[in-house]
Design a protein that fits this description.
By secondary structure, the protein is α/β, with parallel strands linked by helices. Helix content is about 30%, strand content about 20%. The chain folds into two domains: about 170 residues, Thiolase/Chalcone synthase (Peroxisomal Thiolase, Chain A, domain 1, 3-Layer(aba) Sandwich), CATH 3.40.47.10; about 120 residues, Peroxisomal Thiolase, Chain A, domain 1 (3-Layer(aba) Sandwich). Helix 3 crosses helix 4. Bound molecules: oxa(dethia)-CoA.
Length: about 350
């Protein structure tokens, strides 16, 4: 039976390190608050006007391609997961194809908009293509440049201290080895909570989903744009919004549920997991999930302390760092899981 294996891995984080103390100088926050509530000590900021989500994604992709021992020209499909694309459209898939210099190949490029679960969704989509024999070298990238649009004033502190920039990538290939590859993927969503963690503007809604349309000051005329008005801009509605406590409550329930779902399908138990790599949303969430699943410290990998929450990039960055530090070995049972905006969540179980 054909399975999908991760044949190459790479990640890229910008050079500039921003410690919590630096944030204290631009907003009313403290190093202690950030560490106590999130575990984050520092994050990376991309170089504005020089780096973009696509350029960081391309750096990670080049590392993954080299790691897989293939050439750029061997890539036969691209999947790009991000919530912070270079452009509103087209997506980063085609931009990274051009950035890598392989546009002439004209391979397909798919953009995934599933925020924190983007990498798991991308992995599941790529897995279907590989197992059906459609493609042989899929490049899957998760990349984010959050700092392009965070509110670094005190008004935005509950969101902006959490997120960081970075990119991770994998090359996915078919394998016929019985003890290797992706065993299960499970994807879920519940749109009831769409606005609890969202960046709603600019968008086509024009107030449609809001009871109090007036507060946004949307234009009504047929020839008036409705996606971003001056009032919305001055009220800071162009920035992401997060109901942190609500997200936290669901995250700590859904992470263990979707991990158990994968384990049950594979006939395995939490004790069989060699390494759980949860999406790096908040160290407290990871610790809670670890406790519920009764996992030892050496069964869980976290690096949010260094990078903050890099959304679609967090799992491939963590997976690559775990491998670089010898925590991922051939034959290990690796569990990847994510939860975030949408709400969307998912898990993937694989034998390394
Ligand atoms: O990857 C996407 C998924 N996202 C998540 O998983 C995030 C899940 N949620 C969380 O991680 C947490 O809810 C946060 C870390 C975002 C917030 O922690 P919290 O313990 O839920 O704090 P809170 O929002 O209830 O705020 C507590 C207090 C508030 O002050 P008052 O009302 O008690 O006076 C906030 O205004 O902390 C204040 N606060 C801050 N203080 C200093 C909020 N942000 C900050 C800040 N620095 N950066």
């Amino acid at each position: 039976m054909l399975r999908t294996k991760i044949a190459g891995l790479g990640h890229y984080v910008p050079e500039r390190i921003v410690k919590n103390e630096e944030l204290e100088s631009v907003m009313d926050t403290t190093n202690e608050w950030i560490i106590e509530r999130t575990g984050i000590q520092e994050r990376r900021f991309a170089k504005k006007h020089e780096e973009t989500t696509t350029t960081m994604g391309a750096q990670a992709a080049l590392a993954a391609i080299a790691d897989a021992g293939i050439t750029k020209e061997d890539v036969d499909f691209i999947v790009f997961a991000t919530l912070s694309p270079d452009y509103y459209f087209p997506g980063c898939g085609v931009l990274v194809q051009r950035e890598l210099g392989i546009a002439a190949q004209e391979v397909g490029a798919l953009d995934i908009r599933n925020q924190c679960s983007g990498f798991i969704y991308g992995l599941s989509v790529a897995d279907q293509f590989i197992r059906t024999g459609t493609y042989k070298n899929i490049l899957l990238i998760g990349a984010e440049m959050h700092t392009m649009g965070l509110d670094f004033s005190t008004r935005g502190r509950a969101v902006s201290v959490i997120f960081g920039d970075g990119a991770g990538a994998v090359i996915l290939q078919p394998t016929e080895e019985e003890d290797q590859g992706i065993l299960t993927t499970h994807l879920h969503s519940n749109g009831t909570h769409a606005e609890e963690l969202a960046m709603m503007n600019p968008g086509s809604h024009g107030g449609h989903h809001h009871e109090d349309r007036e507060q946004f000051g949307f234009g009504d005329g047929d020839f008036e744009p409705i996606f971003l008005t001056q009032k919305m801009y001055s009220d800071g509605l162009q920035f992401p919004y997060m109901n942190g406590k609500h997200v936290f409550k669901f995250a700590v329930r859904k992470f263990p549920e979707v991990i158990q779902e994968g384990l049950e399908e594979a006939g395995l138990a939490p004790s069989d997991i060699d390494l759980l790599i949860p999406h790096q949303a908040n160290l407290r969430i990871s610790q809670y999930v670890q406790k519920v699943l009764q996992l030892r410290d050496d069964q869980v990998f976290n690096n949010i302390q260094k990078y903050g929450n890099t959304t679609a990039a967090s799992i491939p960055i963590a997976l690559n760092e775990a491998r670089e530090t010898g925590k991922v070995k051939r034959g290990d049972l690796i569990c990847l899981a994510a939860f975030g905006s949408g709400f969307t969540w998912g898990s993937a179980l694989l034998r390394w």
